[in-house]
Design brief:
Length: 350
C-alpha cells in the first residue's frame, strides 16, 4: 500500500466531518426557526437521492456485474432504516431539546459503541499487543475529551431555552439512541458491501428508501400538512446543504468501510465536535472555555493514538499473512511424492 493510498481514507473521513459539522450548525439554526425535525430528514434524504440518481444511472449503464437482488435489497433497506431513518430522526429530535455542543459530544459515544459491537461480532480483535492497547486507550480518550467539551464548558451550556432537567435528559437519551443506531449501521455497512459493492447506486437507493421511511414516520407523528412548508431561507438552505452532505458522505462512508473497516470510520466522529466548536467561535462569536480547548486536544490526541494502534495491528496482520504464505510455499516445495521412488531404478546392462 502506497503512502497516498494509506492517507486517502483519512482525508476523506476528515472531509466528511467538516460536512457533518456544517450540517449541524445550519440545521440547528433552522430548528430554532420551528422547522420540523422529521420533515427535515425527509427533505434531506430526497434531495440526496436527486443528486445521486444521475451518477448512479450513468455509472451502472452497460454494466451487469452488480445487480440488486432480494437479499441485497433487504440489506440496503435495513441499513437505510437503522443508519438513516432511526439514526437521523433520533438525533435531530434530541437536538431540539439540547444544544448542538451537547448533541455533538454525546454522538461521540459511537466509536466506543462500535468498538464493543465489532469486538462482539469478531470484526475487531483485542490481543495482548501495543496496537490493541492503543486502540482501547485512544477510544477512551476520544470519548472522555468529547465529554469534557460538553460538561466543562461553563454555565452558558445549560443557560438555554430547553426547559427542565427531565427534558434535557430525554434529549440526551435520544442522541444516545442515535449513536447506537449509527454504530450498528457501520457494522451492517461492511455486510452490505459484500453483497452490493456498487457504492454510487447503493447511496442513491439508501437516500430514496430513507426518504420514504422517514415520510411514513412523519405522517404518523405529525399528520398536519403545515409542517411540510419551508418558510425561511435558512430552512431551505439547510435542507439543500444537508442533502448534498448525505449524497457525499454515504458514498464516502461505504468506500472507507470497505477499505479500513467500521471502527476506522467511527473514530473520526469526535472531530465533528471539535469543528463545531471552532466554527461556532469564528462565525457565531461563541466563547471558548478551558474545558472546550482541553477536550478538543484530548480528542485529537486520542484519535491519533487509535489510528496508530489500528496501523500497528494491520502491519502485524500483514506480517502474519506473509509468514503463513511463506510457510505454505515451503511446505509445498518440500512435499515428497511417496508413489515415486526416491532413487531411479537401476537398469541392468546385461
Amino acid at each position: 500500500m502506497g503512502l497516498m493510498e494509506y492517507y486517502k481514507p483519512i482525508i476523506v473521513m476528515i472531509g466528511c466531518q467538516f460536512l457533518y459539522a456544517g450540517t449541524n450548525l445550519f440545521v440547528r439554526a433552522a430548528l430554532l426557526e420551528e422547522m420540523s425535525s422529521s420533515v427535515f430528514v425527509v427533505y434531506r434524504q430526497f434531495i440526496g437521492f436527486l443528486l445521486m440518481a444521475p451518477f448512479a444511472y450513468f455509472s451502472r449503464k452497460g454494466k451487469d456485474g452488480c445487480r440488486l437482488k432480494w437479499k441485497s435489497f433487504w440489506l440496503i433497506f435495513l441499513l437505510s432504516f437503522v443508519g438513516v431513518t432511526a439514526n437521523h430522526n433520533s438525533y435531530y429530535m434530541g437536538m431540539t431539546l439540547i444544544t448542538t455542543s451537547v448533541a455533538s459530544a454525546m454522538y461521540n459515544l459511537a466509536p466506543a459503541i462500535t468498538f464493543v459491537m465489532a469486538y462482539t461480532m469478531g470484526l475487531e480483535k483485542v490481543v495482548r499487543s501495543w496496537g490493541s492497547i492503543a486502540k482501547i486507550i485512544g477510544t477512551v480518550l476520544c470519548v472522555s475529551g468529547a465529554a469534557v467539551m460538553a460538561l466543562l464548558e461553563g454555565p452558558k451550556l445549560l443557560d438555554t431555552k430547553l426547559g427542565d432537567d427531565h427534558t434535557r435528559l430525554i434529549g440526551c437519551l435520544l442522541v444516545f439512541g442515535s449513536s447506537c443506531c449509527w454504530s450498528l449501521a457501520l457494522i451492517l455497512q461492511a455486510r452490505v458491501n459484500e453483497y452490493y459493492p456498487d457504492y454510487v447506486s447503493m447511496t442513491a437507493y439508501m437516500c430514496l428508501m430513507a426518504s420514504l421511511q422517514s415520510g411514513i414516520f412523519t405522517v404518523l407523528v405529525e399528520p398536519s400538512t403545515n409542517v411540510w412548508k419551508l418558510t425561511t431561507p435558512m430552512q431551505i438552505f439547510s435542507c439543500l446543504f444537508a442533502g448534498m452532505t448525505s449524497a457525499i458522505t454515504f458514498f464516502a462512508q461505504a468506500w472507507c468501510v470497505a477499505r479500513r473497516g467500521p471502527l476506522f470510520s467511527a473514530l473520526f466522529q469526535p472531530l465533528c465536535t471539535v469543528i463545531v466548536t471552532v466554527f461556532g467561535y469564528i462565525f457565531l462569536h461563541e466563547d471558548l472555555y478551558t474545558g472546550s480547548v482541553t477536550g478538543a486536544v484530548a480528542v485529537i490526541i486520542g484519535l491519533y493514538i487509535v489510528l496508530w494502534g489500528k496501523a500497528k495491528d494491520n502491519n502485524n496482520e500483514v506480517k502474519e499473512e506473509q509468514i503463513k504464505t511463506l510457510d505454505s510455499q515451503i511446505c509445498e516445495s518440500c512435499k515428497i511424492d511417496l508413489v515415486e521412488p526416491l532413487l531411479p531404478e537401476k537398469t541392468s546392462i546385461f
